[in-house]
Amino acid sequence: MAFDGPIGWDPRYLLPPSPSRPPELPPPTTAASFNRPVVAVLTCSSQIVLALGQDSREILPKPSVMPSHALVLVGETLALTCLSQDNSTSIQWLKDNHYLPPNNKLHLSDGNRTLLRKGVTKADAGAYQCEVRNSVSFRTSDAANVSVAYGPDAVEISPSGNITQPFGSPLILTCSADSVPVPQFGWLFNSTSVGQNSSRLTVNSTMWENEGIYECWVYNTLINRTGWASVTVIVTDQESPSAHPGLSLRLISGSIFGLLTVVVLIVAPLYCLCARVWREKSSQVTSTTALCDNRPPGLHVRPGPKPENSPDPSSTYQALQYGDEALYQELGK
């Protein structure tokens, strides 16, 4: 390889020659020594250029994505632009450090500089970057944060369903929802606003008038959408032990005493009645045992009068007297 004209400075020198004197060139060499290409490094306006023969490429500056922060409504279209000073570079897009594959929702235009994503969903939120590349180098932009506005979804109150609340106990209800941005909260009791605009509703001591339907509304100001949830609170007459610490012991003691009193009032008369009947039956059995060992139950035997013309004065007869009609039925069997 031959050189036409003087070389400004030799790459083996770290500093360019002084303009006041001609440069000191290395000893002449043969043409065979120039079989390999000579690489010269030049500086110009803080840009580094690599010259390889007649071909040169610029080391790329860092690109950027506009806008750097975006909030898109769910179902709408996301638009991002990659800004690069070199128009001859190839451009690729990344989301959360992964290259975006082509699909029917992703549309690239203007040499991939503009990204359009149609029908945005919650899954499209994340960090987007663009990468520029040429044959010498590649650079990646800082992340552009994309948020997707949606909701409120999955509105619920905890605890849920029908709530049994002891009289005098504290009632705490918590409302939650899946929403971006953070929504506004409000409460209704039996269709009337209670004036609490937070996700939590607290009733310090539950009274009878606190029984009813509690509703929570959740409002997304950006999407102009409202979600609802409701629960039913039933107040019971069993007071909360936490509301009256000494009341539970008195209630237990009083309940036991009352139960014992009822038992005594019921059992004692029954016992006396049963004992009296038993004594009466025992006395009847004792008085008739000597007269008739095999008598039917309830049979009363008494001696009959002596006949006037009895040939045998020693003979006697007995008259039988039955105690009741049931005894006749037993004898007839």
Helical/strand content category = alpha+beta
Q: Between the first and last Cα atoms, what is the distance in angstroms? A: 150 Å
β-strand percent reads 35-45%
CATH class term of the domain at 151-239: Mainly Beta
Give, in order, the helices and strands: EEEEEEEEEEEEEEEEEEEEHEEH
Average pLDDT score: 75
Q: At the third CATH level, what is the topology name of the domain at 151-239? A: Immunoglobulin-like
Biggest β-sheet: count, sense, barrel? 8 strands, mixed
Family: Belongs to the immunoglobulin superfamily. CEA family.
Organism: Eublepharis macularius (Leopard gecko)
Transmembrane segments: 251-274
Biased composition (Pro residues): 14-29
Describe the model:
The chain has helices spanning 247-288, 325-332, and strands at residues 39-44, 47-52, 55-58, 64-66, 69-73, 78-83, 90-95, 98-99, 106-109, 114-117, 126-133, 138-140, 144-158, 162-167, 171-180, 184-189, 192-193, 200-203, 212-220, 225-239, 299-303, 318-322. By secondary structure, it is of the alpha+beta class. Among the domains are: 6-25 and 34-58, no CATH class; 64-142, Immunoglobulins (Immunoglobulin-like); 151-239, Immunoglobulins (Immunoglobulin-like, Sandwich), CATH 2.60.40. The protein starts with 38 loop residues before the first strand and ends with a helix. Mean pLDDT is 75; it is low at 1-15, 17-22, 28-55, 242-247, 288-296 and 313-320.
